């Protein structure tokens, strides 16, 4: 992570603390009353090819003895009523502000992958994880809704894994590598603003000009 990107992360995270902490406190109380403990869910994600870390979320699913792989249609029945609200608004990801302060992730970058996919596709993730993973990113804005629809069709963990490995992993990697080629602080701020607008319902859909990566990013610096 470059020093300038890290400074931007810390600056934005510090600005968000007075807003996020009271909201998180309210959500913790509501979750405790609605579905009990544990309130938080921590799952391993990969910072790079060898280093894992615990990514924190507000718990939105019922607990099972073993939980492995990405979420698909096979896990929809486990999503709690309050969890659906959290996921739809992405408020389940508020605890990841802690991960940003720790330096585990950035605000913008590829979504941190599970270890099993990093180990299954080492050549691909060796390229993708050359930039730090993030809460949001180009692939999140462009592909996340389509990924959710694809995985919602699955009826078992095996089908979810097959769809994710065959379709989602390579397509998201391609978009993440496009982000790498155009990465800049201005571009990061643009993606953050698009994410915020989408979360608060100001925009719908992709909102990215078709073919912008072929013509060159509007945020590329003059040579």
Report on the structure:
The chain has one domain. It is globular and about 45 Å long. Helix 5 runs parallel beside helix 7 and helix 6 (138-152) runs antiparallel to helix 7 (157-182). It has 223 residues and is mainly alpha-helical. It is built from nine helices and four strands. Helices cover 55% and strands 9% of the residues.
Number of domains: 1
**Global geometry:** globular
Helix segment tally: 9
Oligomer: single chain
Characteristic key phrases:
single chain; 223 residues; mainly alpha; two-stranded antiparallel sheet; two-stranded parallel ribbon; 9% strand; disordered C terminus
Give a concise summary.
The chain is mainly α and 223 residues long. It has helices at 3-35, 81-89, 96-102, 115-120, 122-128, 138-152, 157-182, 185-199, 212-215; strands at 40-46, 52-58, 106-108, 134-136.
Explain the layout of strands and helices.
Blueprint lengths: L2 H33 L4 E7 L5 E7 L22 H9 L6 H7 L3 E3 L6 H6 L1 H7 L5 E3 L1 H15 L4 H26 L2 H15 L12 H4 L8
Parallel strand pairs: 3-4
Antiparallel strand pairs: 1-2
